[in-house]
Amino acid sequence: MKTKIGLAAVALLLIGLSACSGDPERLAFMNNDEISVMNANGTEKIQLTSDGYTKVSANWSADEKQIVFDCNQDGDSEIYVMKSDGSEITQLTANEDSDLLAFWSPDGNKIVFASDRDGDLEIFTMNADGTDVTQLTTNTEAIEYPAGWSKDGDQIIFSSDRDGDREIFTMNSDGTNIRQLTTNDHEDDFPSLSPDGKQFAFYSDRDGDYEIFVANIDGTKVRQLTTNPAGDFDPKWSRDGNLISFTSDRYGEEGIFIMNTDGTNVISTGVAGYTLAWIK
User: Fold this and answer.
1) In angstroms, rounded to a whole number, what is the distance separating the alpha carbons of residues 144 and 41?
2) Which three-class secondary structure state does DSSP give residue 14?
3) Is the pLDDT of residue 3 over 80?
4) Which residue, among 98, 100, 52, has the nearest Cα to 76 in the 3D structure?
């Protein structure tokens, strides 16, 4: 039996969760193609962009001073950076193809991103200023895009349909030593590494609809965290490793939810959109 929780109870519980885990973390999220931040309980929302252009992703540098994001302002999706307050926007890529889904390396020196500049979506890296673009994957039969870096910056985790359906892989930061982490006849997508690098969360339709799962970094011990007839997508680990945010349409529209890393205490923030990252 499902129980509805009042907004006041939601706020109190989320505040309690943040307090128990140290300094409160905030959520960056996307709604109506604009990038915003808010408290984990859905309060104090601040909108950082308001240009009306289509965006897919945004990610914060490790020191949280800059944001890398994609935007179709020049007619196709390109990679941009801006300060964490939304100011001083700089365009890093400029071509007639789509560049998107960018992530900072932990040391802030590199950015990994997806691009279809070779005809299909592949994974590339570049310096933080947009120079020295290097292609890491060259699989013409697959669509591949990154989902983040390991804590030490040596590994990149990514999604690919190179085996016929979407699965999760890792590779060295230079594109070598590709390892497949999930193998099944369903879609496993958009992984998120735990802060300690020992696990990853992802969403999958292996039970018939999209749910949130967690596995060890080698792909073993897969655990299902959510079980409902709605779609649950895009999990993101909190920086302290105690919470996972995700997007769900269980109440009729896509909204942002938070739960413990074992799948308990699922709570709606009451905010529409999808999570981009956890920040301080």
Assistant:
1) 34
2) helix
3) no
4) 98
- Could you tell me the end-to-end alpha-carbon distance of the chain, in angstroms, rounded to an integer? 35
Query: In angstroms, what CA-CA distances link 204 with 86, 97, 182, 221, 235?
Result: 33, 29, 10, 15, 11
Distance in angstroms (rounded) separating the CA atoms of residues 11 and 83: 29
**CA 211 – CA 233 distance, rounded (Å):** 7
Instruction: Look at residue 280 in the predicted model and tell me its pLDDT.
Output: 83
- In the numeric block, the tokens 């011990």 are attached to 221
Strands (E) across 205-263 are located at 211-216, 223-224, 232-237, 243-248, 255-260
Residue type for position 20: C
Stretch 142-159: mean pLDDT: 96
Percent of the chain whose predicted confidence (pLDDT) is above 70:
91
At 231-257, the pLDDT tens digits run 999 999 999 999 999 999 998 899 999
Q: Which long-range contacts (CB under 8 A, 24 or more apart) does 163-170 make?
A: 168/200, 168/202, 168/219, 170/217
CA distance 76 to 12: 43
- For residue 70, pLDDT beyond 80: yes
Instruction: State how far the Cα of 29 lies from the Cα of 35, in Å rounded to an integer.
Output: 6
pTM of the shown model: 0.89
Distance of alpha carbon 108 from alpha carbon 4, whole angstroms: 42
The whole-angstrom separation of Cα 148 and Cα 45 is 25
Residue at 225: amino acid letter: L
CB 156 within 8 A of CB 144: no
What is d(CA 251, CA 152) in angstroms, rounded to the nearest whole number?
38
